[in-house]
Design goal:
Layout (H helix, E strand, L loop, with lengths): L1 E5 L7 E4 L9 E10 L2 H7 L10 E2 L4 E5 L4 E4 L2 E3 L5 H4 L10 E2 L11 E5 L4 E2 L6 H4 L5 H11 L5 E5 L3 H12 L3 E6 L4 H9 L4 E4 L8 E6 L6 H7 L1 E9 L12 H4 L4 E4 L5 H13 L6 E5 L3 H10 L5 E5 L11
Parallel strand pairs: 11-12, 11-14, 12-13, 14-15, 15-16, 17-18
Antiparallel strand pairs: 1-2, 1-4, 3-5, 3-9, 3-18, 5-6, 6-10, 7-8
Helix pairs in contact: 1-10, 4-5, 4-9
The chain binds zinc ion (2 copies).
């Protein structure tokens, strides 16, 4: 099979012929139909987070067809021990032995993959392969972040990319008001945010028209943490939703005072995925995707790094792809 392989961190993905993957105990063999591109893939590619094995096939938002014909989704959480204190208390996202798709297990920038059946999701039937793929990380870890943000109505989203464009729609469906923050001067991104339901959109350093009850930071710039904190009403929460963030600058205690909270979100539980995929079908969440054939997976990462598309990028390993498509 063909796969886009990370041979060494910091170097471009290489398209290579690999042996077809053979499922181990409990695993399914899947023909990959689509695989969403996540900022974590870019962090691994750029060595901002470490890989655990090389070479590795990246990609952890996989839509695949099992050998018995079922369409399934494979997320970042690929395996847990089921025994530790976290697994036994509904927090398998924190399992210290967890193995992650596209890092510890070869992922979906490939024509075929294998995945532990217990960690695969059924997918909303109404959504196409390429439209549903971005839900599998950006969507469901974004949903976990939204849940941990609390019930506040006024929600800020810092970094309006793949996750934010989906979570914005879910938040509006829940009756919240969304304030979107993009790179300063990114008027195209701000118009895109308004088109998916944000009532206000501005640059990340702007003060929103009202204090926020919560803010989710999807961008990897730690300098946004004190900025978002200062935009909060008393009792508000800043949720850092990414796996990697640059250092957070110091700030006066007064900015945290009045029971404001800063917290992170790590990974997902299977329950997050089941809840979110059901909710996404109900909203329904509509994704904006740019499609790349397998040969251009590296270009998809470069475009993500440069902010050259709105919404999500999706790699289509098993079919020739058009240049771009909006749905
Ligand atoms: Zn565990
Ligand atoms: Zn991800």
């Amino acid at each position: 099979m063909r796969a886009a392989v990370l041979v060494r961190g910091g170097e471009p993905l290489a398209v290579r012929e690999l042996d077809d993957p053979v499922p181990g105990p409990g695993q399914l063999h899947l023909s990959v139909r689509a695989c969403g591109v996540c900022r974590t893939d870019l962090h691994l590619r750029d060595r901002e987070i470490e890989t655990t094995r090389l070479p590795v096939v990246l990609g952890h938002q996989i839509v695949g067809i099992s050998d018995d014909g079922r369409r399934l989704g494979v997320p970042w959480l690929g395996w847990t021990d089921g025994e530790c204190v976290y697994c036994r208390t509904g927090r398998e996202n924190l399992c210290p032995a967890a193995r992650f798709t596209g890092r510890d297990i070869d992922g979906g920038f490939a024509e075929q993959t294998v995945a532990d059946e217990r960690f695969c999701f059924e997918l909303p039937a109404a959504m196409s392969d390429e439209d549903v793929a971005p839900l599998l990380c950006g969507g469901l870890i974004g949903y976990r972040a939204l849940t941990l943000a609390g019930d506040g109505v006024r929600l800020g989203l810092y970094g309006f990319g793949s996750a934010a464009h989906m979570i914005c729609q879910v938040a509006v469906f829940q009756g919240r008001r969304v304030f979107a923050f993009t790179r300063p001067g990114d008027e195209v991104g701000q118009a895109f945010a308004r088109s998916v339901g944000a009532e206000w959109a501005g640059g990340s350093l702007e003060t929103p028209p009202e204090p926020l009850d919560a803010a989710i930071i999807f961008a990897s710039d730690g300098a946004l943490v004190p900025v978002a904190l200062r935009a909060l009403a008393p009792g508000g929460t800043v949720v850092c939703a990414g796996i990697h963030m640059s250092d957070i600058p110091g700030f006066p205690y007064a900015d945290l005072w009045e029971e404001r909270t800063i917290r992170s979100v790590a990974n997902l539980t299977r329950r997050d995925g089941e809840e979110f995929l059901a909710l996404a079908a109900q909203v329904p969440v509509r994704t904006t995707v740019t499609l790349y054939p397998l040969e251009r997976a590296e270009e998809a990462l470069a475009d993500l790094r440069a902010g050259r598309f709105e919404g999500s990028a999706v790699v289509l390993p098993s079919q020739p792809a058009p240049e771009t498509a909006i749905s």
